[in-house]
Amino acid sequence: EAGVAQSPRYKIIEKRQSVAFWCNPISGHATLYWYQQILGQGPKLLIQFQNNGVVDDSQLPKDRFSAERLKGVDSTLKIQPAKLEDSAVYLCASSLEAGHRETQYFGPGTRLLVL
Amino acid sequence: ILNVEQSPQSLHVQEGDSTNFTCSFPSSNFYALHWYRWETAKSPEALFVMTLNGDEKKKGRISATLNTKEGYSYLYIKGSQPEDSATYLCALRNSNSGYALNFGKGTSLLVTP
What is the mean pLDDT of residues A44-62? Predict the structure, then answer.
């Protein structure tokens, strides 16, 4: 079974530029998550989708971050404009359903450096 | 945001040593505790999902225990090997967190030959 795919793996941009990340979850997984992991901290949930609907985006900085999952499969996360503090690893995860015991399967992440 | 604490922050052991880490969390409204292993440049790998007080799970040389009443979980590695070098993350789900995983900062383990 193929795992969660993410691209690009690395990205370096200057502040105020825009950037987009892509995620392809495990086939058949209804729930998709985007996490942000800043160096020295644990991953923090940015947004959760159930199929193509948003379940939780309470910690998404909506003035600059946006995400979509139009057909309920792939998802993109965009930052526009980027700030220095957005430097982090952006992890995408998926699970079969949204239950509390469900294992979330993670992709390898996109490492973003904002200069 | 839930306060999930992990200790120690980092650990350096010799090959063959056994080791353990701690994950502490609020005990109220508990649903589940997840353990992950994250090797550099790879995807975080799910190790265990623990839900019941007194749970003990094992995967090869790695095992974990759970105490939901006092709010802690231990992860044990028996006979550490260099390939065990990774960051070990625990993550909590309770009724206050919705379906999000609330992660600790992780314990970084280095096993040298």
Answer: 93
